[in-house]
């Protein structure tokens, strides 16, 4: 009984020490903690600014009653205004400095500048002179996949990042606006009816941004970012009008390549959480 009272206080810490060494492995060091992964979501506003507004068209078909003419190529100005839209993104960060993210941005409808181009100088509104301005509007949609790099330690409250990836861009709500030509004799604007179509595009994309965390124990953050999309799309216009005097129907179809190449400036909020393998 006396021996038991002596051995228990001695053996207990010894047993705990042996147990900790055994669990640490052959080298005697404690095993590293399991790797931490991070999931992050962001949502907010996106200010979409087109980087180019010119397109060169070539005639596909120009049909007057009984005749076909080829007018060759001409220059036109799409002139889309900057518009606000919204974005949402999800990000998976399996290690401290690298992540993969998927984002979707829905831009608002781009409207061109002057809604009454026939009030401009004649040489800027002469459709037969192969120049035509401000004729289209549409709504862009961007889906992009990125590989991102975070240069700072994860413990920092301010987390800048940069990423490269690919984007898929599509367009909706395409519409012609104030399309027609000016009679060279009467200088009267003759409106055309018709359709506008923009094709989808695959291209590269890159982004640079920063997350401002509210605190070490907070899951909420503020995000700002600048994103560039490489967008080269086909644009096609089909128009027709009826001669009020003869009743003859005139049809015109033409197309070209449009380098849209917009910037998107994002500001939003985010939420993140950690988990282990």
UniProtKB/TrEMBL annotation:
Q: Which terms are listed as keywords in the entry?
A: Signal
Query: From which residue to which does any coiled coil extend?
Result: none
Q: Where is the signal peptide?
A: 1-24
Pfam families, per database record: OmpW
Q: Which PANTHER family match?
A: OUTER MEMBRANE PROTEIN W, PTHR36920
The protein depicted here goes by the name Outer membrane protein beta-barrel domain-containing protein
